[in-house]
UniProtKB/TrEMBL annotation:
It comes from the Archaea. Pfam families: BolA (PF01722). SUPFAM superfamilies: BolA-like. This is Stress-induced morphogen. Belongs to the BolA/IbaG family.
Length: 82
């Protein structure tokens, strides 16, 4: 699964407007560690743990079959909206 596919899968998993940016993590395990920034109004008022669970739910079984590690940053709106 390439990075664009992961982004699309995350974005498709949310009813509200969602933006996902996925990249390879920098470090000793670059090939199998990913970073994602996910912005969605669906996160408003939701705990950080529940926000991350929402992203994992959007990814479904890919989290256990195709993605080894995913570092998440989630927020309810972009910095431009603040």
């Amino acid at each position: 699964m390439d990075l664009a596919d992961i982004e699309a899968r995350i974005e498709a998993g949310f009813e509200a407007d969602c933006s996902a940016t996925v990249s390879r993590a920098r470090g000793p395990h670059d090939d199998d560690h990913l970073e994602a920034v996910v912005v969605s109004p669906a996160f408003e008022g939701v705990s950080l743990v529940d926000q991350h669970d929402m992203v994992y739910d959007a990814l479904g079984d890919a989290m256990t079959t195709e993605i080894h590690a995913l570092e998440l940053t989630t927020r309810p709106r972009s910095d431009r909206d603040a």
